């Protein structure tokens, strides 16, 4: 929005919402919404505490491991599906099912199969993120210019070289787009996993604070989590824009 | 060629269900029933009607939540898409909501609204609304400028531009936003049944897990995934039917 | 469209006596720091086809949209049929470069859309649209959708839509730039017979010198930086020689050369 010839930055309205939050909090309208200033004070108080650091590391570990598997499995599978028609026709129906299926329903299965610990949470995270990565990688590989493939073949590229030197890079913009959405979904997956499987990490903090009516603690952790999630998604969006310059250039 | 695709789909299903059956027979885990056992459990629940009772319960928050999200989401989306001021004011909220793991709000919702239907409807709403809002607003914003100018040059009034140009032009994208919203709504509905109070399908899953009746548990999970996928496919078919050719025809090719 | 052999469209054109349908007086337009039009003045005689010719970026579209009332100008006046205008009006109709057809509407609804917006009852507007659909040679395609038509056919729909509202000034922004060469030639002939038969004023934007010389009663040669009317040219081509021969006429070639000489410095 432009006010008096000056363009307000994109997310600046969050300040107004923050102010509104503060006012609502100050009036004591509802117990569930403490003033934002109080939340921030709490935030700085708890951010170095062992409980918070533990929650953060537990969550980060599960998240990073889950995302690692989603990417490390998702991209190659996507490339193979983009290259091989048979594989594509066999796998695509399943990928399409899982990309939009209510994956929360699978979490109980993971619990009984893999126990109530880290393993199940990591798998949940991977399950949330992987399908869109596969789909986008596949789409990216399928749009690769035929002459690029023929070029690499004419120069005698090995199958492995073709994958790592041509397909991956030519499909990179789509792959990154998929990774961005996949990672956003993985963030949701890790929290859902922590809430459903075992009450650990941030999930445990939320439960603890909510059941003890520590509202400003609850909101403080929520703000940290949302800010982290948002930063990750913006950072990946930035990377995606960085490579999209050549997406526009290739034909 | 048509047949090949169909055969491969059937083959693919056979492979996966076959693998499931074999893995269940080994068994890979005491908690891994075979495919046939699970299907038998599903058939039993279907014949004794318990699955329908469960779905009546599960669909309640889902339908109510998705309906609210659709109504409010499209309204907000139109508003945001049409007005730069509201775009500036409201977009960031929905962008953050879209990126954030809103499931974390569940403990708070339970405190505020109890463990009843209201909380569950809320969970469905917060899961499904952001994507509906964001796709509606970006669809509205991306209405081809020349179509709006065309209407203006033929003296269209503002409401006519909205009703005859912007909304029809945005509908395909609004509809696909709706589809994503429904998909997220399913996630929310199941999540709330597993997390808040076990009712409906969530109850079958939790209860049969607690008594180690794994075939029933797998059957219930299988059925909810099938239901969601069928419904989303139906929406997609509707979408293709309603808007076929719509995204072509602006361009000059 | 009535495909009769084109008569000399301006056999009776005496520009000084002809009344002026559209007049631009000292119009300026800036996009922020970009000076798109500066103090531009131009007259468009009634019943004639005037081309706006110039390299891209010289403000042709801007000028046309200002005349249409789709863009606000910063200063100066636009006078249509003796009246100062500031917004869109029923006396002007626009044909868009990218057709601007509604992809969800049939040819019939697209052609009748201008009338629909004017509140003409359905049966009446469909009768009228029917007539113009026939006129542009699309009979039988009434129920087709834009994506089922070729580029040339789509532009015919756009043309029929503009004709059906019966505006006396037609504004065409590079209407043929997105259609193939063969269709384009046919279009040019059709346009000439429209000018001859419809008693309307045409303002036609093009970047093709040949097209401008072939179709126009007068050409306003626009040059950029700053945008201005460099020259007014009245080709006076004797069109009775027939489409196929005109490109070989010395007068035609002279005018094309002369325009190219003026433009060449700007297209480097
Ligand atoms: N919406 C706009 N914002 C900023 N500059 C514009 C805009 N539209 C056109 N211009 C600039 O104004 C000049 C004239 O543009 P235009 O009328 O489209 O030229 P033409 O149709 O002759 O190619 C160009 O330099 C163009 O970059
Ligand atoms: Mg132009």
UniProtKB/TrEMBL annotation, chain A:
Pfam families linked to this entry: BPD_transp_1
Biological process (GO), any one: transmembrane transport
Entries under CDD domains matching the protein: TM_PBP2
Compartments where located: Cell membrane
GO cellular component labels: plasma membrane
Main location: membrane
UniProt entry keywords in alphabetical sequence: Cell membrane, Membrane, Transmembrane, Transmembrane helix, Transport
Location of the ABC transmembrane type-1 domain: 56-236
Bilayer topology term: Multi-pass membrane protein
Residue stretches spanning the membrane: 12-33, 62-82, 94-115, 121-141, 190-210, 216-239
Annotated family: Belongs to the binding-protein-dependent transport system permease family.
UniProt protein name: ABC transporter permease subunit
Automatic annotation (TrEMBL), chain B:
Single GO cellular component term: plasma membrane
Compartments (UniProt record): Cell membrane
Keyword Transport: yes
Pfam families, sorted: BPD_transp_1
Keywords noted in UniProt: Cell membrane, Membrane, Transmembrane, Transmembrane helix, Transport
Topology relative to the membrane: Multi-pass membrane protein
All residue ranges annotated as the ABC transmembrane type-1 domain in the record: 55-236
Recorded family membership: Belongs to the binding-protein-dependent transport system permease family.
Protein name: ABC transporter permease
Species the sequence originates in: Meridianimarinicoccus aquatilis
């Amino acid at each position: 929005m432009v006010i008096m010839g000056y363009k307000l930055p994109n997310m600046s309205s969050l300040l107004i919402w923050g102010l509104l939050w503060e006012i609502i909090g100050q009036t004591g309208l509802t117990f569930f919404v403490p003033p934002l200033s109080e939340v921030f004070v709490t935030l700085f108080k708890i951010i170095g505490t062992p409980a918070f650091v533990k929650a953060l590391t537990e969550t980060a570990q599960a998240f990073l491991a889950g995302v690692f598997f989603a990417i490390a499995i998702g991209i190659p599978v996507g490339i193979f599906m983009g290259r091989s028609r048979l594989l594509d026709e066999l796998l695509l129906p399943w990928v399409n099912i899982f990309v939009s299926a209510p994956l929360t329903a699978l979490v109980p299965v993971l619990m009984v199969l893999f126990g109530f610990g880290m393993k199940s949470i990591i798998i949940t995270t991977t399950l949330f993120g992987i399908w869109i990565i596969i789909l986008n990688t596949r789409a990216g590989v399928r749009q690769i210019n035929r002459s690029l493939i023929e070029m690499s073949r004419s120069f005698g590229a090995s199958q492995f070289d073709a994958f790592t030197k041509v397909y991956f890079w030519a499909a990179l913009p789509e792959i990154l787009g998929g990774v961005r959405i996949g990672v956003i979904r993985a963030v949701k997956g890790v929290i859902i996993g922590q809430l459903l499987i075992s009450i650990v990490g941030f999930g445990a903090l939320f439960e603890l604070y909510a059941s003890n009516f520590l509202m400003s603690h609850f909101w403080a952790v929520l703000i940290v989590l949302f800010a982290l999630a948002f930063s990750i998604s913006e950072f990946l969006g930035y990377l995606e824009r960085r490579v999209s310059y050549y997406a526009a250039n290739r034909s | 060629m048509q047949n090949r695709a169909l055969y491969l789909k059937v083959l693919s299903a056979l492979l996966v269900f076959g693998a499931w059956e074999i893995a269940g027979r080994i068994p890979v885990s005491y908690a891994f029933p075979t495919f046939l056992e699970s299907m038998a459990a599903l058939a039993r629940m279907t014949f004794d009607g318990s699955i329908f009772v469960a779905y009546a319960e599960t669909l309640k928050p889902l339908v109510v939540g998705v309906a609210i999200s659709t109504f409010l989401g499209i309204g907000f989306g139109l508003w945001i898409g049409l007005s730069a001021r509201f775009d500036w004011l409201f977009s960031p909220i929905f962008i953050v909501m879209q990126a954030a793991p809103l499931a974390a709000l569940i403990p708070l919702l339970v405190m505020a609204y109890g463990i009843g239907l209201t909380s569950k409807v809320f969970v469905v709403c917060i899961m499904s609304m952001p994507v509906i809002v964001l796709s509606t607003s970006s669809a509205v914003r991306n209405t081809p400028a020349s179509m709006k100018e065309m209407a203006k040059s033929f003296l269209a009034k503002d409401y006519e531009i909205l009703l005859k140009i912007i909304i029809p032009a945005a509908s395909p994208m609004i509809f696909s936003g709706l589809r994503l919203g429904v998909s997220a709504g399913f996630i929310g509905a199941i999540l709330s049944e597993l997390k808040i109070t076990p009712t409906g399908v969530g109850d079958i899953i939790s209860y049969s897990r607690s008594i180690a009746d794994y075939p029933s548990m797998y059957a219930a999970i299988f059925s909810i995934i099938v239901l969601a996928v069928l419904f989303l496919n139906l929406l997609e078919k509707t979408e293709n039917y309603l808007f076929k050719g719509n995204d072509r025809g602006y361009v000059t090719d | 469209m009535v495909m009769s052999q084109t008569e000399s469209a301006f056999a009776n054109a005496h520009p000084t006596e002809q009344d002026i349908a559209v007049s631009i007086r000292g119009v300026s337009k800036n996009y922020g720091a970009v000076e798109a039009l500066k103090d531009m003045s131009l007259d468009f005689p009634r019943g004639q086809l005037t081309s706006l010719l110039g390299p891209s970026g010289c403000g042709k579209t801007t000028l046309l949209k200002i005349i249409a009332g789709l863009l606000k100008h910063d200063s100066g006046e636009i006078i249509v049929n003796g009246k100062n205008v500031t917004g869109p009006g029923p006396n002007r109709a626009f044909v868009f470069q990218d057709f601007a057809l509604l992809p969800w509407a049939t040819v019939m609804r697209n052609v009748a859309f201008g009338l629909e917006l004017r509140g003409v009852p359905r049966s009446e507007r469909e009768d009228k649209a029917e007539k113009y659909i026939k006129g542009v040679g699309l009979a039988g395609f009434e129920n087709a959708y834009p994506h089922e038509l070729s580029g040339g056919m789509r532009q015919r729909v756009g043309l029929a839509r503009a004709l059906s509202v019966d505006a006396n000034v037609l504004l065409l922004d590079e209407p043929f730039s997105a259609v193939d060469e063969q269709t384009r030639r046919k279009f040019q002939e059709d346009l000439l017979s429209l000018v001859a038969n419809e008693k309307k004023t045409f303002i036609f934007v093009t970047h093709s010198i040949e097209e401008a010389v072939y179709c126009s009663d007068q050409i306003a040669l626009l040059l950029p930086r700053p945008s201005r009317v460099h020259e007014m040219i009245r080709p006076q081509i004797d069109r009775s020689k027939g489409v196929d021969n005109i490109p070989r006429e010395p007068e035609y070639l002279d005018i094309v050369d002369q325009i190219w000489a003026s433009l060449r410095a700007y297209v480097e």
